[in-house]
Specification:
Layout: E1 2-9, H1 13-24, E2 29-32, H2 40-44, E3 53-54, H3 58-63, H4 73-78, H5 81-90, E4 95-97, E5 102-105, H6 110-123, E6 127-129, E7 134-139, E8 144-149, E9 154-162, H7 177-184, E10 193-195, E11 199-201, E12 213-223, E13 226-237, E14 241-243, H8 245-259, E15 264-269, H9 276-289, H10 308-315, H11 328-339, E16 341-348, E17 356-358, E18 379-381, H12 395-410
Parallel strand pairs: 1-2, 1-9, 2-6, 9-18
Antiparallel strand pairs: 3-5, 4-5, 7-8, 8-9, 10-17, 11-14, 11-16, 12-13, 12-15, 13-14, 15-16
Helix pairs in contact: 1-6, 1-12, 9-11, 10-11
Length: about 400
């Protein structure tokens, strides 16, 4: 049986990092990937631009993590955003900082990130085995001995690193293989739920505004009347509900509440830079300038064209009523509609459409410094398979890179 020091299972961001780091330490490393190429999911992240990390300080970064932030303290001390940028710089990949500290490759091409990793793997003489699905991890008395592939072939190894991702975007290979492998070895898998996922709304008229993107709006998510999330950012209306960066971040909290069968509403503030009084004054000025026109023609300077018919419908004011016939109470109602454009959230899109999977390997069973299993000697975990996740903004990829680095460094 052919022998390796380390077998890394999964050729995504965590797996490529782990394999390269382990090999740079003189280890003989095999990187096994079931797809026909490395980084298949990484290729589509950030709409193909790949938001590799965030430039914020550690304390701010930790506040963006939604599950088990303390678990990541040690790995971030070993390898964080500055070290990651230096890593890519040494490989010839230039980066840039954009809004909210988001860091992208200067080329805006995720393929360049993958090429940098491939360069690192080749330099460190990592053996890459594509189209190779690991179906079993071999152990003896709770110690790693090797791995078995789908074709029945086996290799022996001293360490195995599971970096197979979660359940989101299964077309990229994230089909939950790692959860099964870990469970067979006695590891507990916490509840798997979609995170960073679009939301489904109850109201049918949402289809009338599908495709509409709003750059700077405020949202407030209410569960049983209690605010569970609020922020300002970008949203996108779809045929089933809402998406966009702001909604994806809110979805973590929504997913938790839906899991508990709570009644959830989302209020969108179309004019977050204006108070109710300021918006009412602006609307009154607009009405005074257009007092001899129909109501349907009065909102063009205040709202996107697609949204106007919906606001008119919800106001219960006939679209052909003259503006000078609109009462003060009706005008106040229009202001409220613009400041509290409300939908009932009835669910999330399926986990297969989520950017990441919430839940995974119970971190209580993993050494937070080394990423080694506390159950099986020589077994390590890295990336999305762990029960650790965060908001959008480069945070989840940094988690993958950092945990991959730790696993490769200590295996």
């Amino acid at each position: 049986m052919y022998h390796y020091d380390v077998v890394v299972i999964g050729g995504g961001p965590a797996g490529m990092m782990a394999a390269g780091v382990a090999a740079s330490r003189g280890k003989k490393v095999l990187l096994a990937e079931k797809n026909d190429r490395l980084g298949k999911k990484l290729f589509i992240t950030g709409n193909g631009r790949c938001n590799i990390t965030n430039a914020c300080d550690l304390d701010i970064f930790l506040n963006k993590i939604t599950h088990n932030k303390k678990f990541l303290m040690s790995t971030f001390r070993l390898f964080f955003n500055k070290q990651l940028i230096a890593f890519f710089d040494n490989l010839g990949l230039e980066t840039k900082i954009e809004n909210d500290g988001r860091i992208f490759p200067k080329s805006d091409k995720s393929i360049d990130v993958i090429k940098a990793f491939e360069k690192n793997l080749n330099t460190n003489k990592v053996e890459i085995k594509l189209n190779s699905r690991v179906t079993k991890i071999l152990t003896n008395k709770n110690v790693i001995e090797g791995v078995e592939f789908q074709d029945g072939s086996k290799v022996s190894c001293n360490s195995a690193i599971i970096a197979t991702g979660g359940l989101s975007y299964p077309q990229t290979g994230s089909t939950g293989d790692g959860y099964r492998l870990a469970k067979e070895l006695g590891h507990r898998i916490t509840d798997l739920k979609p995170s960073l996922v679009p939301l489904v709304v109850k109201e049918d008229y949402i289809r009338e505004i599908q495709g509409l993107s709003l750059k700077l709006v405020g949202i407030k998510v209410l569960s049983e009347g209690k605010t569970i999330y609020e922020d300002i950012g970008e949203i996108l209306f779809t045929h089933y509900g809402v998406s966009g960066p702001l909604i994806l971040s809110a979805s973590f909290f929504v997913s938790e509440e839906i899991h508990n069968s709570k009644k959830i509403y989302i209020k969108i503030d179309l004019k977050p830079d204006l108070t109710y009084e300021q918006l009412d004054k602006l609307l009154l000025e607009n009405f005074n300038m257009n007092k001899n026109r129909y109501f349907k023609n009065a909102l063009k300077s205040l709202l996107p064209k697609k949204l106007i018919p919906i606001i008119i419908k919800l106001s219960n004011i006939p679209e052909n009523r003259m503006i000078n016939m609109i009462t003060r109470e009706e005008r106040k109602n229009i202001v409220t509609l613009m400041k509290e454009f409300t939908f009932e959230i009835i669910g999330t899109r399926p986990i297969t459409e989520a950017i990441i999977t919430s839940g995974g390997i119970d971190v209580k069973e993993v050494n937070p410094k080394t990423m080694e299993s506390k159950i099986i000697k020589g077994l390590y975990f890295a990336g999305e398979i762990l029960d650790v996740d965060a908001f959008t903004g480069g945070y989840n990829l940094q988690i993958a890179f950092s945990t991959g680095y730790s696993a490769g460094y200590y295996c």
